[in-house]
Design a protein that fits this description.
This protein is mainly alpha-helical. It has one domain. Helices cover about 50% and strands about 5% of the residues. It has 4 helices and 4 strands. The chain has helices at about 25-35, 40-60, 85-105, 110-140, and strands spanning about 15, 25, 80, 80-85. It has a two-stranded antiparallel sheet. The protein has a two-stranded antiparallel ribbon with strand order 3-4. Strand 1 and strand 2 form a beta hairpin. Helix 1 crosses helix 3. The relative contact order is 0.14.
Length: about 150
């Protein structure tokens, strides 16, 4: 029999609700979406997720108008009974959480293998940030990339 220190996790049943305009986010959904294992405690993950919800809400504040009661108002359709915007909102928050978790946890091992692992995580952190920005851009109805001529 083998021992896997971070293999199992207990469902947290923790949800984060902010302004009623935005959908609730379940901590377990974040874990599953961006594959965060049990080495990150629910308490730590919850704090990081709250920070990301605050940031994503700040970036989407321009969508809150008297005509739009929820973020779903801006959805172009539904999948499995949920508006597109719910999935994109979860993606934005979860990818922001993944970037922060990878940044924090890569610095705990200062050995040579730890330094190599930290270097290996840098592209993953950048990809998570990119995915967060893309989800936000999609919600805002904008293209993923904006190019300006100098």
């Amino acid at each position: 029999m083998s021992f896997v220190a971070n293999g199992n996790k207990t469902p947290s049943q923790i949800t984060i609700s902010s302004d009623p305009f935005y959908p609730e986010i379940a901590l377990d959904d974040i874990r599953e979406t961006v594959r965060i294992d049990g080495t990150v405690t629910n308490e730590r993950l919850n704090q990081i997720a709250i920070e990301e919800v605050i940031d994503v809400n700040r970036l989407l504040i321009s969508l809150k108008t008297p005509e739009a009661q929820t973020l779903a108002h801006y959805s172009a359709g539904f999948i499995a009974g949920k508006p597109y915007t719910d999935y994109l909102y979860l993606s934005a928050v979860a990818n922001g959480v993944a970037a922060k978790v990878n940044e924090k946890y890569r610095s705990y091992d200062s050995s040579n293998s730890g330094n190599k692992r930290a270097d290996d995580l840098t592209p993953s952190i950048d990809e998570s940030r990119r995915n967060k920005n893309w989800a936000i851009q999609q919600i805002l109805g904008k293209n993923h990339t904006v190019v300006e001529l100098i």
